[in-house]
Amino acid sequence: MIIMENGTTAMTGHQDHAGGVIKIETLLKGLGIEQVFACDTYSQEKLTGLVREALKTEGISVVIARHPCMLKFTRGQRKRKGYVQKHVTIDPKTCTQAHVCVESFGCPSFVRNLDGSVSVNTDLCLGDGSCRPSCPDQAIGFEKETNEGI
Hints:
By secondary structure, the chain is an alpha/beta fold. The protein folds into 2 domains: 2-68, no CATH class; 83-146, Alpha-Beta Plaits, CATH 3.30.70.20. Helix content is 23%, strand content 24%. The protein has 4 helices and 7 strands. It has helices spanning 24-30, 44-56, 70-78, 100-105; strands at 2-5, 35-40, 61-66, 84-90, 110-112, 118-120, 140-146. The chain has a 3-stranded parallel β-sheet with strand order 1-3-2, with helices on both faces. A two-stranded antiparallel sheet has the order 4-7. Strands 5-6 form a two-stranded antiparallel sheet. Strand 5 (110-112) and strand 6 (118-120) form a beta hairpin. The chain is flat. It starts with a strand and ends with a strand.
């Protein structure tokens, strides 16, 4: 089992959830599950390794992929004075149009254009960079723009 833990109940307005009081690991151990693995969701290589390790174990195992909700985090950051919004961009010179970012990573900010090129809808991009490791060409980078007065 894989549990995606982002510290919030997003579907109802980003309220905190009981995970802040009752740790998931404690709950799972109380249910008799001994093989519990956890890491930061953005540590993709480590997460992949833990999933492989969990699949090899006898009986029930759980991997907890934990990272704060970036939508909630970004909204909070925007309220700070001097906040600089980051967006990712696609380098058309480096991109070979493998489309891993669109088809496998699946971030809604990526747009596959009619000519096969990929662009970024900056209205949807949170700028966290979680997409960058997904590109086999390393064509995803950061572009900064200032959002003073938001």
